[in-house]
Design a protein that fits this description.
The protein is α+β, with helices and mostly antiparallel strands. The protein is built from twelve helices and 27 strands. The strands form seven sheets. Strands 22-23-24-25-26-27 form a six-stranded antiparallel beta sheet. A hairpin with a 4-residue loop joins strand 24 and strand 25. Helix 8 runs parallel beside helix 12. It is globular, with a radius of gyration of 26 Å.
Length: 452
């Protein structure tokens, strides 16, 4: 299998405490070899860059001549994986989301820690990971509605002030018995470095410290179930941070995406192999620690009470929405246009466009989700003219909406920003608003999450 190699690196001066002036030496060296870095000198190198060999040689020469040492992280990801299985990609909860943690008894007799969260802080509705893997409520509901029974869900306690998508810990019943991974890999193991190949042997010979050698996990074909949702769990040890991964068969993955409970960006094709790759370690996995059934039943009753009681809606702020849009654009560059040019932005004089201009300055249009397409400024002007020309033919409409068309929907509906800065979805079948968002920020967040 072909793969991509990525190195994150920095130079250390032996027995030297850094201050701002000394960081500048680091930065100057990185710039001298034509690369970029952060404010203290951390830089990135993809080994398929045409000058990768030359950069490594320059690092080695500089370290030998100036008495510095190279330190970094190495990662390898496969690029040609074709698989019937996907790993569920997770992201961490925000720091202000987790309010508390508490211990609970498990089926294995060991106590584990669960979170108490304030869910409305999670603008991006996606699988999360803290002490355990959890998924949005829409994921759980889609599984139930489609007869997926080989998985348990446990509510993550939400004590936030505002209404929000709820989260559930996910505990698949089936476990993959073995995993091929990078548990014992160390740069000092020259034979293992050679067997792994690529640029790793050369990097290991130059760098005094590789803080992490991260290889993509692999699973043996003979160990995989015929379908469903399964998992891998390896408990932590002194020399290993552990593994806890949920894997989803493509049939269920496609169902979850069709149900808008998941996005392809939440999934990574799993590497299924006939035998353990050279240089990898093959280890047995362990049973995950699952809360007692009595606790999960009690937690679900609390969830139902909370949903029945209801809470006020959270007003999304522009700053949050713009940050979210930038994040998604970074993750899905191919789906978004470049930002509106400064020259065009300065020419925008229509007052109603002033409130959406900050979004154009992130991306001048793009695919927010399969359902919603954010129109470029030029397309918005054109679509607005066409929309209101079409409305003139509607004899049954008592009052025309006032605003501009900022997005279109997969079924032909139009999304309008109104003069009072609310956003409405206007049906293409009957002349009426069928969905309303309290502000532009709310629309962008929910359109990206595709949560109507």
């Amino acid at each position: 299998m072909s793969y991509k190699e990525h190195l994150t690196w920095i130079l250390d001066k032996k027995n030297h405490r850094f201050n701002d002036d000394k960081y500048q030496e680091n930065i100057d060296f990185v710039h001298s070899i034509g690369k970029k870095c952060d404010c203290v000198g951390w830089s990135e190198l993809y080994m398929d860059e045409p000058d990768a060999d030359a950069v490594l040689d320059k690092i080695e020469t500089f370290c030998k001549e100036q008495g510095w040492r190279a330190r970094g992280w190495y990662e390898r990801r496969y690029t040609d994986v074709e698989s019937d299985w996907y790993e569920l990609k997770t992201e961490d909860f925000k720091d202000n989301t987790v309010l508390d943690v508490f211990p609970v008894e498990t089926e294995t007799g060991k106590k584990i820690y669960l979170e108490v969260i304030s869910a409305f802080h999670e603008i991006n509705v996606a699988p999360k990971d803290c002490h355990n893997i959890c998924v949005p409520d829409r994921f759980r509901k889609a599984c139930i509605e489609n007869g997926i029974t080989d998985v348990d869900f446990c509510w993550v306690q939400d004590k936030g002030r505002y209404e929000a998508e709820q989260y559930f810990y996910i505990f698949p019943h089936k476990r993959i018995p073995r995993i091929a991974y990078d548990r014992y890999i160390d740069k000092k193991q020259k034979a293992k470095m050679q067997s792994l190949g690529g640029y790793l042997p050369k990097i290991a010979s130059i760098f005094y410290d590789l803080q992490r050698i991260g290889l993509q996990d692999c699973y043996l074909k003979e160990d995989m179930p015929s379908g469903g949702i399964t998992y891998v769990y390896c408990s932590s040890t002194d020399d290993f941070c552990g593994r806890h991964t949920v894997l989803i068969h493509k049939d269920i993955a496609e169902m979850l995406i069709n149900e808008k409970a998941l996005s392809w960006s939440n999934l990574t094709p799993a590497c299924i192999v006939d035998k353990c790759p050279e240089g990898y370690d093959l280890d047995k996995t362990a049973d995950a620690h699952i809360p007692l059934k009595t606790y999960m039943e009690k937690a679900f009753k609390e969830y139902e009470k909370l949903k029945a009681k209801g809470r006020p809606e959270y007003i999304v702020k522009e700053k949050e929405a713009l940050k979210f849009l930038r994040k998604i654009k970074t993750e899905r560059k191919e789906d978004f246009n470049k930002r509106l040019t400064k020259k065009v932005a300065e020419s925008v004089t229509e007052p109603i466009y002033s409130s959406i201009l900050p979004y154009y300055l992130v991306s001048d249009g793009g695919l927010l989700s399969d359902e919603y397409t954010f129109l470029s400024y030029a397309d918005s002007l054109k679509a607005t003219t066409e929309f209101f020309e079409g409305l003139e033919k509607e004899e049954l409409l008592e009052e025309n909406p006032e605003g501009i068309v900022i997005a279109t929907c997969a079924d032909g509906d139009s999304v309008l920003l109104t003069k009072d800065e609310k956003v409405i979805r206007f049906s293409h079948e009957v002349p009426e608003a069928i969905i309303e968002w309290q502000n532009i920020a709310k629309f962008f967040v929910e359109a990206i999450n595709d949560a109507e």
